[in-house]
Structure formats: structure tokens, C-alpha cells
Amino acid sequence: MVYIFGNWKCNPTNLKKAKEIFYTIEKNFKGNKKVHVAVFPPFVFLNSLNSEKVKKGAQDVFWEKQGAFTGEISPLMLKDAGCKYCLVGHSERRYIIGENNEIIEKKLRSCLENKIVPILCFGEREKVSFGKVKIEIKEQLKFLINYKSFKNVILAYEPVFSIGTGLVCDTSHINDVLNFLKNELNIKYKVLYGGSLNSKNCQEILEKCDINGFLVGGASLKTREFLKIIEIAEKYAKSKEK
Ligand code: PEP
User: Fold this and answer.
1) Of all helices (H) and strands (E), which one includes residue 170?
2) What is this structure's pTM?
3) What percent of the chain has pLDDT above 70?
4) Which residues line ligand 1 (CB under 6 A)?
5) Nearest to residue 150, comparing CAs of 90, 203, 215, 104?
6) Model confidence over 214-235: pLDDT tens digits?
């Protein structure tokens, strides 16, 4: 199974366009057991986008179920809106909004308690030596190392220098990170790659890295491009079955 997840970030700016993107993907994706597709639109569009084939996720969540928390969206609201997944700890939330590990851990716990699968995003901020990368990643994933209760988390490795820059990460570096995770974590988590992924570079990553799929940002808003990535993933998954 290959997971293809699309993070729409703070796009598009109106429901008409959101429906156009979502239902173009929904109409053209035949749905099968080899590729699992989900999109992560802004909160306000969630209730208006519905499909059996294309699953939904949220880009963020608050850790309490309800109450006096102005501006927040709870896991119960996400469930009610049909979300199966939720992104947690995306680098744009860590470094633009200022989310820290304490907040990220609460959000992870809240998702798991409320039966939402969290996609925990992590990755080094800058191109530094692998020794430093390991220290940074270990800090970001420390609660996975300490607690086994996080076994249903999906990981998304997204080196920050690759996000939205066109600088896709080297496959050898992705493999180094995957090996590091294997050695450090006592559970085999599903791991996605994200960072400037498109239909031209996804095949190489699938072939060279032992990855479970992708978290696609910018390219997930371009329906033709996103459908192409899905098609490549389908062909790859089929070829693996032979
Ligand atoms: C992301 O925001 O999760 C992401 C991977 O973005 P992009 O594909 O645009 O680099």
C-alpha cells in the first residue's frame, strides 16, 4: 500500500475552488487497494468535501474536546466533519506559529484518544551534518522513543529546506534517516516523505527508498500533477506485487 496525502496548507481561498480541486481528484481516482489517498484542506472546507475514495484529514487540532478555547477546533469536531487523519507538528506550525514539543505531544495524544490517526511531521531545519540531523530528529521524536502508546502514529519526514523550495531531498539522505529511525524506534512506523515532491521525482524516491508514501504540499493543489503522482504510485505498487 502506498499512501498519497495532499496538504493544501492555507489554500484555496474559496469553497468553489476547494470543491473543484477535491471533486476532480475524486472523479479521476478510481480507488483501489494499492494506493490510499487523503487530502488535508483548511478546516472551513472539511464539511463540504465528501467521498468514500478520497479520505480527509485536518491540518491541525486542539487537544481539548470542547470548552472555553476561543478559535480552536477540537478532535470531536474533526471526527464529526469526517476526518480520519490530522497533521501534527508541521514545520510551518513549528517555526511560523511557534508550536513546541509540549504542544505537539498533547495534540498527538488527543488525536489517538479520539481515534484520529496523527501524521507527525518532523525533519531538520537546515542542511547540517548527519550527526546534527540525528540530534534534531531525536528531539522531535522523543515521545515516540519514550512511550509505546504512540504506535498508531504515521511519520512524515519533511526536511524543512525541501519544503516549497523545489529542492527535493537526496534519496541517500532519506535512506540514512529511515535507517536511523529503524535503529532508534522500537516500533516500525509507517513513514512518508514530504518536500518539493512532484510527478517527476516521486518514482525515484519510491524505487530507492523504503518509504510508505508521500505528504505532498504545493503539487497536491494542481489536480493533474496530484493525479499523476497517484498514477505513478499505483504502477509502482502493482509492480511490487509481481
Ligand atoms: C508540505 O507542506 O508538507 C510539503 C511537503 O510542501 P511542498 O510539497 O510544497 O514542499
Assistant:
1) none
2) 0.96
3) 99
4) 7, 9, 158, 163-164, 194-197, 215-219
5) 104
6) 999 999 999 999 999 999 999 9
